[in-house]
Amino acid sequence: MPAPAPGYVVLLPVKPPARGKSRLVGIESHERADLARSFALDTTEACLAADGVGAVLVITDDSYFAADVARLGAAVIPDGVSGDLNETLVQGALEARRRWPALRPAALCGDLPALRSADLDAALAAATGSRAAYVEDAAGGGTTLYTAPHDLFRPAFGPGSAAAHRDGGAQPLAGDLRSLRHDVDTLEDLETVRGLGLGPRTALASVRVGSLG
């Protein structure tokens, strides 16, 4: 049987790497920027390789990073609502609907350097239907993925986002989904996901950081 047509567009908001990942403390600023860029590129590549993903729309104000993800095959738009992640995602979903009206939006954290396409596909397959759905992070309380039909797309990322999504009617997605649940904010987080298998850019960037080599 032929594979089903891809049904999702992944919305990937990425801060300019030079300003992102401020909680990666104890390393030089250029090392932090290198890791942040690598996290986002590895996440993008894993999304592009997923069978259920028809397009990836990266939202960033960094022109150099935009060129990097465009070379991978992602579409890129500037952040129209800097400082408000959820409004950024709503605007991104509107642009995605204009470009790919048949694809359902899925907002994803850009700091999943161990993401496996199979885990993303499993989550997206489980999320099909008329309800919103989300994946809670491994730490508990946060969200790494949120998806909903366009008319129900109301992301609530931020502190307590898992409860906010659940209270808004979204369905929590069960299953292991380990690589999808482990976002990276700190060097300790990075050591945790190393055992899951880092993406190639993050693996190289972490070697360049002396304390992680």
TrEMBL record:
Coiled coil: none annotated. Keywords: GTP-binding, Nucleotide-binding, Nucleotidyltransferase, Transferase. GO terms for molecular function: GTP binding; phospholactate guanylyltransferase activity. It comes from the Bacteria. Gene3D superfamilies: Spore Coat Polysaccharide Biosynthesis Protein SpsA, Chain A (3.90.550.10). It holds the Pfam family CofC. InterPro entries: CofC (IPR002835), Nucleotide-diphossugar_trans (IPR029044). This is 2-phospho-L-lactate guanylyltransferase. It comes from Nocardioides luteus.
